């Protein structure tokens, strides 16, 4: 039996390693799922009910207020204005949130995590 060229084995092993090493979250099932607290919608995604796409408006993807400084007169000397799905329903299922952090001089942002989500 003829032997397989070494370079071909190397290329195949590299391709297999690349295939096995790729990992990601599953793709979203739909482009957006604007969160709504009203359970009349039948679709429940990511802990929230989805608003009927026919009634979604641009305002569901808008948050006014990031330009307003938070009051840093507190023990930590900082103030986080968090914009998550509860404040910006259009963020639902997108795996991202926003925050404005204001610091007084020597203010702190305590250690924290963002499990399975990204924060800007
Ligand atoms: C952050 O700032 C807002 C707006 O001034 C204020 O209502 C809120 O109490 C502040 N939070 C803290 C933890 O100081």
TrEMBL record:
CDD domains: cupin_OxOx. Residues 1-23 form the signal peptide. Residues 66-120 form the Cupin type-1 domain. Keywords: Apoplast, Disulfide bond, Glycoprotein, Manganese, Metal-binding, Secreted, Signal. It is found in: Secreted, Extracellular space, Apoplast. It comes from Morella rubra (Chinese bayberry). Oxalate binds at residues 109, 114, 119. One of its GO terms (molecular function) is manganese ion binding. The keyword Magnesium does not apply. Mn(2+) binds at residues 112, 114, 119. This is Germin-like protein subfamily 1 member 13. One of its GO terms (cellular component) is apoplast. Disulfide bonds join 33-50. Pfam families: Cupin_1. SUPFAM superfamilies: RmlC-like cupins (SSF51182).
């Amino acid at each position: 039996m003829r032997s397989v060229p070494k370079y071909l084995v190397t290329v195949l092993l590299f391709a297999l390693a690349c295939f096995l090493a790729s990992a990601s979250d599953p793709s979203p099932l739909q482009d957006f799922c604007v969160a709504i607290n009203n359970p009349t919608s039948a679709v429940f995604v990511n802990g929230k009910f989805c608003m009927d796409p026919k009634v979604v408006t641009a305002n569901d993807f808008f948050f006014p207020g990031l330009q307003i400084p938070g009051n840093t007169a507190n023990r930590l000397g900082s103030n986080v204005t968090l914009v998550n799905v509860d404040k910006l329903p259009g963020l639902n299922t997108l795996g991202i949130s926003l925050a404005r952090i204001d610091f007084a001089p020597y203010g702190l942002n305590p250690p924290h995590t963002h499990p399975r989500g990204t924060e800007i």
